[in-house]
Specification:
Length: 629
């Protein structure tokens, strides 16, 4: 039963991968030619260009010397057969030893320079990919999964490194040895060397057929690597939920399905690539049989006139060198074939152009914290089913406190993401400080519009190091002041190392509420013109939430505060409250006004404050009667 269930999961995973494969990405990276790939990757060689060029030179020297040695050896054998003395043999032997040492030195030096060039190139390549990712806007990141980017920075980069190492050394050595061996075979054995050329052509054609067969399979394999990493990442990040719902067996089956799909393709690829070695062995057998049979026959029938023993020995050595080169070339061929898809995936990251960029002559100063939405509509992609925001018309004065409330999926977070230009409006204009956000330098705008998310991230390091993300030059006193405003100083002082306490990866050694308060303090250190709290006090109690808001009002009155919340208590003292519903503004007003005029706000407030609702509504009704009188 378990085996049948696994097979069904595996088949479903294979089907999903085939569907993914049929969906081709668009953009600059969707139509990469080999020349474009090489030029894109070549830009990452940089300071390792010299070692990359020296390596082939050393390899050529090594090959030339290795091809000369059998020729001299053949002459030595023939001279010995003709009765040469020990002096002549000794001189030739010294030359052979010297050439062998020189060949060894060239090979060793090529190995060192090759390693430096390949590892340095890969270091630059990873740096360039990571730098490219840092420039991505949210819409760019949406086109790649996290696990896919990790695979490209690790597995794909390693594949390209191995390919580059082989290309500048072994891929130069193998064809050079092949060509020189054939030339020297013609010099030594004459027409008999034609068999070398014939075998090389047939073997090359067969290798080409194998490459054409496996290349599409490698593309599918790397997509399945992404799928496998997705499964691991999702499981590890959500391990508490997995264990809480006792879903370990389900997760193992899902992983086995992804792993099984990968296994299925790799087995198929290896079955095809396994033909390389039998082809090589067949070529070796054909050449050896031909050379030994016809060479020996020529020596015997002509009594050494047509060919001598030394020449036959040289021919056998050259045939061995040629076939070893072909076998090495076959292995390189497999590696390069596999790495071509890795190179293509890397180039997709390097060539991806950020959808958002700073304009020429961009503004580098935000005058104030005023915010204006002029009939703004927004959709996440051109093929989206509907607008995420529709006809948003909202005007916020600098220093004003604005609350934003609404149900799940009402596009509250989407609204504020347009303020700091994480996305661009599809229609209409968003202005900050009186200027269109598209006129600002991106770093300037985002430095003055601080956003604190509900699930913000703390990084590995001390509390001080995390806080100084907001301001690298902040003094210890400024850190303490920001933490007091965010109500974080109290729990920090209770920690053994206080502000030098180490935060583990992801902030797992602090609670959700403590993490949120540290992230608020970090944002305050930016001294922003606009501070956006995107449900970032959801994990703190109402008393602490109230103290944080009071601190904002007292200590940063000129900063515009936009507070997204699920609790009405978090926004009821705001200057105005915006009620969102299905991507539209349903109502705007103060807490008291919305209780009277907005059904959505009143229902939300009622559900959260049932005990005090009747009393509160009674007070509102009394005020209305007095106003009427």
């Amino acid at each position: 039963m378990a085996r049948q269930r696994f097979t069904a999961e595996q088949q479903a995973a294979i089907k999903r991968e085939q569907e993914v494969e049929s969906h081709q990405r668009t953009g600059a990276a969707a139509d990469l030619t080999l020349g474009k790939i090489l030029s894109t990757l070549g830009a990452s060689i940089r300071e390792y260009r010299t070692t990359s060029l020296v390596t082939p030179v050393l390899v050529v020297g090594e090959v030339v010397i290795e091809c000369i040695i059998p020729f001299i050896t053949a002459s030595l054998i023939d001279s010995m057969q003709a009765g040469a003395g020990l002096d002549a043999i000794g001189r030739t032997s010294v030359v052979l030893v010297g050439l062998a040492i020189l060949s060894l030195a060239c090979g060793a030096a090529a190995g060192v320079t090759c390693s430096i060039a390949a590892t340095g190139f890969t270091k630059n390549l990873r740096h360039d990919m990571f730098a490219s990712i840092q420039r991505f806007s949210f819409s760019n990141i949406d086109r790649f999964s996290t696990s896919s980017l990790v695979t490209r920075l690790t597995t794909d980069a390693n594949n390209v490194q191995l390919a580059y190492m082989n290309i500048i050394r072994t891929a130069i050595r193998s064809p050079m040895m092949l060509v020189f061996a054939i030339v020297m075979a013609y010099v030594t054995g004459g027409p008999m060397a034609t068999v070398y050329v014939a075998v090389s052509i047939v073997l090359g054609f067969l290798l080409f057929l194998i490459a054409a067969k496996v290349m599409p399979m490698f593309k599918r394999v790397f997509r399945k690597y992404d799928r496998l990493n997705d499964s691991v990442e999702e499981n590890v990040s959500g391990i508490r939920v997995v264990k809480g719902f006792v879903r370990e067996e389900h997760e193992k089956e899902k992983f086995n399905a992804a792993s099984g799909a990968l296994y299925h393709d790799f087995v198929h690829i290896e079955r095809i690539l396994a033909n390389n070695m039998p082809l090589m062995n067949l070529a070796v057998d054909v050449v050896y049989t031909f050379v030994i049979y016809f060479g020996s026959k020529a020596i015997v029938e002509s009594a050494g006139a047509a060919m001598q023993v030394g020449q036959l020995s040289a021919l056998i050595t050259y045939s061995f060198s040629m076939l070893i080169s072909l076998m090495m070339f076959s292995m390189i061929f497999v590696m390069v074939t596999m790495s071509e898809e890795s190179a293509r995936r890397i180039c997709e990251v390097l060539l991806e152009q950020p959808d958002l960029a700073s304009p020429e002559d961009a503004l580098t100063e935000v005058p104030d914290g005023s915010i204006d939405f002029d009939h703004v509509s927004f959709e996440y992609s051109a093929d989206a089913d509907r607008m995420a925001l529709t006809d948003i018309d909202l005007h916020v004065r600098s220093g004003e406190v604005i609350g934003v409330i609404g149900g799940t999926g009402s596009s509250k977070s989407t609204l504020v993401q347009l303020i700091c230009r994480l996305y661009d409006a599809t229609e209409g204009t968003v202005r900050v400080g009186g200027h269109d956000v598209r006129e600002y330098d991106l770093d300037t705008l985002r430095d003055k519009v601080a956003v604190v998310l509900q699930r913000n991230v703390l990084f590995t390091g001390t509390i001080k190091e995390n806080l100084r993300w907001g301001d690298p030059d902040a003094t210890d006193e400024e850190l303490v002041e920001a933490c007091k405003l965010a109500q974080a100083d109290e729990f920090i002082q209770l920690m053994p190392d206080k502000y030098d306490t180490h935060i583990t990866q992801g902030g797992t050694n602090v609670s959700g509420g403590q993490k949120q308060r540290l992230c608020i303090a970090r944002a305050l250190l930016k001294k922003p013109k606009v501070l956006i709290l995107d449900d970032s006090t959801s994990a703190v109690d109402t008393k602490t939430d109230k103290l944080i808001r009071k601190g904002f009002r007292d200590y940063i009155p000129e900063t515009t505060k936009v507070i997204i919340a699920q609790r009405t208590s978090s926004v009821e003292d705001a200057d105005r409250i915006v009620v969102m519903d299905d991507g539209r503004i349903s109502a705007i007003g103060t807490h008291e006004e919305l209780l009277r005029t907005s059904d959505i706000y009143r229902e939300t407030y009622t559900s959260q404050n049932k005990q005090s609702h009747d009393l509160k509504m009674g007070q509102v009704a009394t005020e209305e009667v007095h106003d009427h009188e």
